[in-house]
Specification:
The chain contains 3 helices and 6 strands; from the N terminus they run αβαβαββββ. It has 111 residues and is α/β, with parallel strands linked by helices. It has a 4-stranded mixed sheet with strand order 1-2-4-3. It has a two-stranded antiparallel ribbon with strand order 5-6. β5 and β6 form a beta hairpin. α1 runs antiparallel to α3. It starts with a helix and ends with a strand.
């Protein structure tokens, strides 16, 4: 279980509206389209690379797992927690940053 002060630090990074800690919401992020896993300690909806970076720094400092998640439609458990931790849901990071038609390249956010 992540300490309350660390949860508070994460909430401070992303804002109260972008962090979830209720059991009901955490349960929804404990599986994907096919695989069941552990219930995460919290779900966070970052909106920038800076927020993700700050959360990863905390994870390294306090030694908790971070699970990246897109829409959760995978079938292999790649976005499913194994033992708690923080699920980073990238659904808010869904912008197209750049399109280069000449080289057929699009730079997009992970959501």
């Amino acid at each position: 279980m992540i300490e309350k002060r660390v949860v508070d630090e994460i909430v401070n990074i992303v804002g109260q509206d972008n962090a979830r800690t209720s059991m009901e919401e955490r349960q929804c992020y404990s599986f994907d389209a096919r695989t069941d896993g552990a219930i995460p300690d919290m779900i966070v909806f970052p909106s920038s690379a800076e927020e993700v970076s700050r959360i990863l720094i905390l994870a390294n400092k306090h030694n908790f797992p971070v699970i990246p998640r897109g829409s959760g439609t995978g079938l292999t458990g790649g976005s499913v927690p194994v033992k708690g931790g923080v699920v980073l849901s990238f659904t808010r990071m869904n912008r197209i940053l750049e399109i280069d038609p000449k080289n057929l390249i699009a730079v997009v956010e992970p959501g």
